[in-house]
Fold each of these.
Amino acid sequence: MGRETIEWLQEELHKVKKWEQDQSDLWFWEKLGRIPFKILDKWTPKFIHEKVGVLLDEMGNYIQTGGSYLSSIEKLNDYYPGKQFSGLEDVFDLYIVEMDKAAENIAKGRKKLATFQGASTGFGGIFTLTIDIPLLLGLQLKTLQDIAICYGYNPNEKSERIFIVKVLQFVSSDYVGKQTILSQLTHYNMPVGEEKREVVSEIQGWREVFFTYRDQFGWKKLFQMIPVAGLIFGAFTNRSAINDIAEAGQMLYRKRRIIERLTAGDSPPPL
């Protein structure tokens, strides 16, 4: 396998930027999709509101300490069968296409798990929806963390957990929000300094992550409140949620790695 040329890296970066531009196509549907949940918000049972409210504290705890959601970098060798790594620094010597393949395998496995989970919790309608909400959030966080590990980033670091929450917010935001977040995340490609500290300070407003997440998440779960029929809706919405998260995570982490290599002006030697 040859070296990753500067031309190839620039071409791949262009593909990621094209994907970012395509996210504007989601704006109308996202706006439309929030309407039914806003209308029915007052009809939603109190215990559902309370369960969703718990996620606010959980998200804060995750940012600060990782809580019970942290993925272990010890699983690194499982993501790359046939290779033996002593740490994340060994991932730096891989080709980006190898990182992509590992991330895609994780996404495939998590989508299957999300489909089964959504169907299981959707079968009981509103009574099992309270179980599904925290399970899905946990699966989303772990999926993003494992993708981060595939690209050589350590989710145990607070700055990376902030990046992950920003990716979660990106998926839940409208077009304007997406553009703002993309602008913020470009700072992660810069040397540690004022730019990076500015991004970290922005997490003081992390409650917006919860509210945008709730608005988009809520309407998708609306039909899952119907017993038995919720099985179909639950399977579909959970699979869709993980698919969106995995795609955004892979693209944005891939972009970081490509830009870092372009900035360094080099690529790893042939293996």
Amino acid sequence: MSKLAQKLRFSKMHGCGNDYIYVNTMEFTVPDPASAAIAWSDRHKGIGSDGLVLIGKSPVPEADYTMHIYNADGSEAMMCGNASRCIGKYLYEKTHPWPLPVKEGNGYQETEIRLLTLSGIKVLYLHIVNDTVKSVTVDMGEPVFEDETLFNPTLAKSLSTPLHHREGQGGGSALFVSMGNPHYVIFTDEVDQVGETGPALEQHPAFPQRCNIEFAQVLPDGRIRTRVWERGSGITQACGTGACATAVAAAVTGKAGRKSNIVMDGGTLHIEWCESDNHVYMTGPAEFAFDGEIEL
């Protein structure tokens, strides 16, 4: 008699179009998440996503839950801002009864989740209206500009070679920023070169662990149009850590203040680099696409 196939429930969610498959490992086990991420992320033969996110119970008292994220190529990511917002919505709307305190806010309710990631503990602030999470603010921590394990400034001198700008428009400045994962933000009037130059830059020797690449343009109204080549996933609709890195880079280079609206392919994220604590706060939506089952 053949062994019955095990079925696993999942949710497909997205933050500004950055979509992942979410599995609650407090209920289900994924034996080989790297292989599952590759197979399930396939947009023609699988569920289709930018990767796989596993939600678990925290093993340490300083955090409430854990996030493990696997890119579409099976590599494990350190942090994802969009995924963390989606986890907040998932936990609040699918956990009954809700185990954490809820307080009244300005026209809404709010609750906090301490999420353990490979980049440390991130605090999520859920903004709730009529028992539905409408948006989430994530304390993304402090930006880091120098990290020899992620960025080699000497080798970075050749990074300008594959970039191009409109003739007569000048070039953009560029800056490395780590938001728990590596980002290289390039200010340019040619943000659509993301698919052409993003792959080579991701693999450039200046980035020992590969890198997320942002192509950003400051618009006349002050918003910042940004397109992203994500390490391990390619072009994505949005990237939360990438939006944070872009806002920080814009502030450092004098292109914006400490508050920015980052316009990505899938929507807009609101970023504040707070002067009082040097932390970056990201606010944006999180949405369910559908729930389903898959056989292991």
Amino acid sequence: MTSVAVVILTFNEQIHLARALASVRPFATEVFVIDSGSTDETVAIARAAGAQVLPHPFVNYAQQFQWGLDNAPISADWIMRLDADEVVEDDLAAEIKRRLDGLSPGITGVSLKRKHVFMGRWIKHGGRYPLTMLRIWRRGKGRIEQRWMDEHIVLDAGSSVTFDGGFADINLKDLTYFTDKHNKYATREAIDVLNTRYGLSETSEDNTVKGSSLAVAGKRWLKEQVYNRASMGAGPLLYFLYRYFVQAGFLDGPEGLIYHGLQGFWYRFLVAAKVAELDRELSPLTSRAERVNAVERLTGHRL
């Protein structure tokens, strides 16, 4: 059978990790947990399940994951990216075992259709299902984009296929965690917007996601070429209305109203507000070095 290495990033994920590890047990031949200093039982859970734990300080998701790819002793034919709060369902696990070995050499990646479960409800509308993401690739053929936010796996060669089995993001933490996480996401996404605007980082990716799924590439183009150019107020409001009414997010019930309202309007508005706040500081500056220093001082992130 084709061998598969699963790579998971963790920080205090004891509530999720055992579930994630159990879901990949039917097909994973290697599991690597890249931990950024957990103080709960995360590391013990990982080791008890047979995973290899590699500690490494966290800067951002992209750098942490690429460090794992570069430093974990991966020998498997294929690599899978899995978040600690994600679950591979039984039908997808069976599909991976059944189909992966038979893919032609020119197929170097596999995209999965991710579900999002929020407050116990599968969010099926508002453009949230399926979220098709490239998550499995042949060793040596893929890498992760070096971005501060919205980073995806991209292929350096070959093409991809899509598997249909169940793959779900089911975070068990509360709304306080959700809003705190998205507040941090908003800062990182604002850095990416300003990277594009001012060329702050020499390692930042361009606006394409070549080698990833067409859905991801299309959404990236719309966000960076259309949405990010809209006014601070109009963009988030129109995006929420489009998701909630045109894409039928209202069919997701009260949980959908909370989710689409927070993730589709509040979060997008917060990103736009942070971009405006940071840009007020950056626009009078004349050099890249001055702007980099300003972003690092204001956000606490080292570019």
